[in-house]
Write a structure and sequence with these properties.
Layout: H1 11-19, H2 39-47, H3 53-56, E1 59-63, E2 66-70, H4 72-78, H5 82-90, H6 105-121, H7 125-128, H8 132-151, H9 166-172, H10 176-184, H11 206-218, E3 247-248, E4 275-281, E5 284-290, H12 298-304, H13 309-326, H14 331-354, H15 360-369, H16 382-402, H17 409-416, E6 445-446, E7 454-455, H18 458-468, H19 483-493, H20 499-509
Length: 520
């Protein structure tokens, strides 16, 4: 198990909590954000295992000797873990996601507040006296969780299967500040009257009812206040992460490369500029990390986007050791090493062109784009591949306009242009008939299983199946390459080199750096 990472919250926010009256050093009250339970959640959100990971995952957490199963936000509300609730929201948890009992996190937090109020104010008060201060701290954390959920625009009018609402529970706990907050955020003032016969009647006395009526009369609701940004900057969402401006990725958050190290001590040192943006899915908004197009997950996967899987398995451990050694280099030293690799790469490619092995149009496009279009199927970002293909094809068009190549424009396009998966734009039938898409047939059909092999019809697919079957389900199945990609793979990628040279080459070929070709 890796070392416990820091909470994905502003450091000053966490420090403020630790100095506040909510914080407790009691063993049962320590926040899970400082334990291993939240580490996998952070890691999954950083590398984006799938979109909105925090809202679709389930945690198994041991609390008070009991195993709890549920969403991170639900567990935080049930255990009165204020920091865990805040971090779950920061990572993208939906404040209205219901638990197995049909309750939202807001309902859960306020039910816990009612239970704690009964222990501190009700008939069990004398038994609770030895633990009075701890119960007060827990109540304060529960209150804080409910307040944060309301400020994140949780549904304040949600009715639980037990016919209770957030407002009726706030009345039951006699927390008039919470009642005021809920009314200001649009809670239905009539709702508590429907909960009179529930397990948590809202009014214990006529005085409580009169006080509630006075609050309702005093608060004039027109529209709920603006949602606060879940980054906990204290700013309104419209003035923070949803303002259309990319925000800097915090240096103490886990890096998206999968190294499980803080970004500031990982890819930030390699000049990878990361940010954060606002995203929405099914009407729910959350903050997502944004790394450069083509940014791969960890060094082993960087290798996998270039080298065959069997070679990656053999070399991965040694590569990690090399990466650890190079991570100690200063930015300038690292840049000098990369510059040297670029010089060598440029010289090798120019020599291949002079010898008539490499297409000169390929070298021209590479000099304009600055990134090598490596074609390895499904192992690269779709956005990166599409963006690079567009840049590359524009450079090929510019090469044709120069008029230095005696070939026809159609022949140059066929030899050099790429489609959105970084394979050949003008592809041939894999069945061996030689028919080309866009030339002999309008469109080639893809194999329904691997989606990579291309055929002009069923007859060619059947004839090719015996040869294709072994690769059909392999992630290493590649798109058809252009001839220059075959040359690059054979003479550059497959050429003998040291592990350290391979590491530097991977950094260049995985989209982490744009090569300034004219400088070298």
């Amino acid at each position: 198990m890796p070392a416990v990472s820091q909470p994905h919250l502003p450091k000053e926010f966490v420090d403020g909590y630790l100095r506040s009256s909510m914080h407790s050093t009691h063993s049962d009250s320590l926040s899970k954000v400082f334990e291993c339970d939240m580490h996998d959640l952070r890691s999954g959100c950083a590398v984006r295992v799938y979109n909105n990971f925090a809202n679709k995952t389930t945690l198994f957490v041991s609390v008070y000797g009991t195993e709890l199963v549920g969403s991170p936000l639900t567990i935080a509300a049930y255990t009165c873990d204020y920091l865990m609730a805040c971090e779950s929201l920061r990572l993208g948890a939906d404040p209205d996601r219901q638990n197995t009992f049909g309750d939202t996190p807001l309902i859960t937090a306020l039910v816990m507040l009612v239970i704690l109020a009964e222990n501190t104010l009700g008939p069990l008060r004398d038994m609770a006296i030895p633990h009075q201060r701890e119960l007060e701290r827990r109540s304060e954390r529960c209150r804080g969780i409910a307040r944060v959920l309301v400020q994140q625009h949780a549904d304040v009018n949600f009715t639980s299967p037990d016919r209770i609402t957030a407002l009726s529970l706030a009345c039951t706990s006699r927390d008039w500040d919470m009642v005021t907050l809920l009314l200001r955020y649009g809670a239905d003032p009539v709702a508590p009257l429907h909960a009179v016969e529930s397990d948590h009647p809202p009014f214990a006395s006529l005085d409580d009812f009169r006080q509630y009526c006075a609050l309702v009369m005093a608060i004039s609701y027109s529209s709920r206040p603006s949602r606060l940004c879940p980054c906990f900057s204290g700013k309104a969402l419209a003035d923070c992460h949803s303002n259309g401006v990319r925000h800097a990725y915090p240096s103490h958050f886990l890096c998206a490369c999968g190294s499980e190290k803080p970004y500031g001590r990982c890819c930030a040192l390699r000049m990878v500029v990361a940010g954060e943006e606002w995203d929405e899915e099914d009407g729910f908004g959350f903050i997502v990390p944004k790394f450069p197009p083509g940014f791969s997950l960890e060094l082993g996967k960087m290798a996998a986007s270039i080298l065959p899987p069997e070679q990656v398995k053999a070399d991965c451990q040694e590569c990690r050791a090399t990466e650890a050694a190079t991570s100690n280099l200063s930015t300038n030293e690292h840049h000098e090493e990369l510059t040297q690799v670029m010089r060598i790469l440029k010289g090798d490619l120019e020599k291949l062109c002079q010898d008539g092995i490499l297409d000169p149009g390929y070298l021209y496009a590479l000099s304009q784009v600055g990134r090598v279009p490596i074609n390895h199927g499904k192992m690269q970002s779709k956005l990166y591949c599409k963006s690079l293909a567009q840049e590359w094809n524009a450079a090929v068009d510019a090469y044709i306009k120069k008029g230095d190549d005696e070939r026809s424009a159609a022949d140059i396009e066929e030899a050099l242009k790429l489609h959105s998966k970084l394979g050949a734009l003008f592809r041939r039938c894999d069945g061996g008939c030689g028919k080309k898409q866009g030339r002999d047939v309008t469109k080639l059909l893809r194999c329904s299983k691997c989606q990579n092999a291309l055929y002009c019809g069923a007859a060619c697919q059947k004839a090719h199946w015996k040869e294709h079957r072994g690769q059909c389900k392999s992630k290493s199945t590649e798109e058809q390459p252009i001839p220059a990609q075959v040359v690059f793979q054979k003479h550059i990628v497959d050429a003998p080199m040291t592990i350290r040279d391979e590491l530097q080459l991977w950094l260049l070929l995985c989209g982490r750096f744009r090569m300034q070709w004219h400088v070298y």
